[in-house]
């Protein structure tokens, strides 16, 4: 069986395989159970295997690469145009097999297990932060029903909660006091979870030289730097800094026709988490620079004079993404000119 290219449609239990030879003729079309997938590919000659970048894709990519196959991952939206007719497992596997053989297809780098583990810590921390915000808002809303209004912000809530519970004249019933105590304890547990996960991220940051280089960029701290290093991997897989910014969804969408370029808002493609961290970091830089009079002639100050803060924040995030590519792709230090770095 002379198989040159295989399209593998991933699933939870049953996987669909579509293989073709060097002439594009179908030579393999079958369903394989999860327990038999590794053994099936171990009995096949080394070939090009295409998969969509979805759940468990990086795990199977590492698994099949260890068996001698060349594995390439693609974004699902790039595979969709190759689906013929209705969506089925067989049609999806055939479309993946067709898409992976296209010379201009864009591929997703395969992540290492360590990268996935660090990103899992980031996702868990983000989940705890979201739950903490929801718990604080619920506490504030419940107390407002009894006429106790607490200003927005976790610091204000933590400061005012003990005083609310100690005040016996605020009209809170005993059942409500017990509920507020329970919710406050839950809020402290969430705070502890966030702090412990941030310690893990800080430890990884101190042991990673690329992450420390990225943290020198204004608007990028240890949280953003570690997330960028773990998500990007090898920055040389991007041709330039603009490709990295486009991968993060920080470049304008285009609706150009007839030789007339029309630029819209940012594309918002790629990783929402990374884009959010970069934009929040840019907002922090803008808040800092607005209070500095000695940087009146800086690029960001001039941008703020003609654009609003949101547009300026996205522009700075885009600029920082390009700087990130330069530092990672060329092993440079932030603020050091290229001749001195060489």
UniProtKB/TrEMBL annotation:
Q: Which InterPro entries match?
A: Transp_IS110-like_N, Transpos_IS110, Transposase_20
Q: State the Pfam families in the record.
A: DEDD_Tnp_IS110, Transposase_20
- UniProt KW keywords: Coiled coil
Asked whether the UniProt record includes DNA-binding among its keywords, one would answer: no
Q: What range does the record give for the signal peptide?
A: none
The record places domain Transposase IS116/IS110/IS902 C-terminal at 212-288
User: Which parts form a coiled-coil structure per UniProt?
Assistant: 180-207
Q: Which residue range or ranges hold the Transposase IS110-like N-terminal domain?
A: 6-146
Question: Is this entry keyworded Coiled coil?
Answer: yes
Name this polypeptide is given: IS110 family transposase
Tell me the organism.
Answer: Crenobacter oryzisoli
């Amino acid at each position: 069986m002379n198989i040159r290219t295989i399209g593998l449609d991933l699933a939870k239990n049953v996987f669909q395989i579509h293989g073709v030879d060097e002439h594009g003729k179908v030579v393999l079309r079958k369903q394989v159970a999860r327990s038999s997938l590794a053994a099936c590919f171990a009995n096949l000659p080394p070939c090009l295997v295409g998969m969509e970048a979805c759940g468990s894709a990086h795990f199977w990519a590492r698994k099949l690469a260890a068996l001698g196959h060349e594995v390439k991952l693609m974004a699902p939206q790039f595979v969709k145009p190759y689906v013929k007719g209705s969506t089925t497992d067989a049609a999806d596997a055939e479309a993946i097999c067709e898409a992976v053989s296209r010379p201009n297809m864009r591929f997703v780098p395969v992540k290492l297990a360590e990268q996935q583990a660090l990103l899992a810590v980031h996702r868990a921390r983000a989940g705890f932060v979201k739950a903490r915000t929801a718990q604080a808002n619920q506490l504030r809303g419940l107390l407002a029903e009894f006429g106790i209004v607490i200003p927005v912000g976790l610091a204000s809530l933590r400061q005012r909660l003990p005083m609310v519970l100690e005040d016996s004249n605020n009209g809170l019933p005993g059942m409500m006091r017990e509920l507020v105590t329970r919710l406050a304890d839950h809020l402290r547990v969430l705070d502890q979870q966030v702090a412990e996960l941030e310690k893990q991220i800080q430890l990884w940051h101190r042991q990673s030289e690329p992450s420390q280089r990225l943290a020198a960029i204004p608007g990028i701290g240890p949280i953003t730097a570690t997330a960028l290093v773990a998500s990007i991997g090898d920055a040389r897989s991007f041709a330039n800094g603009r490709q990295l910014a486009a991968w993060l969804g920080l470049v304008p969408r285009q609706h150009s026709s007839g030789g007339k370029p029309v630029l819209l808002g940012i594309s918002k493609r790629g990783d929402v988490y990374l884009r959010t961290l970069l934009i929040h970091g840019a907002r922090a830089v803008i808040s800092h620079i607005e209070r500095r009079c000695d940087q009146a002639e800086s690029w960001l100050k001039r941008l703020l004079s003609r654009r609003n803060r949101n547009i300026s924040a996205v522009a700075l995030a885009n600029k920082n993404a390009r700087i990130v590519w330069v530092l990672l792709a060329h092993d440079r230090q932030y603020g050091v000119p290229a001749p001195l770095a060489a």
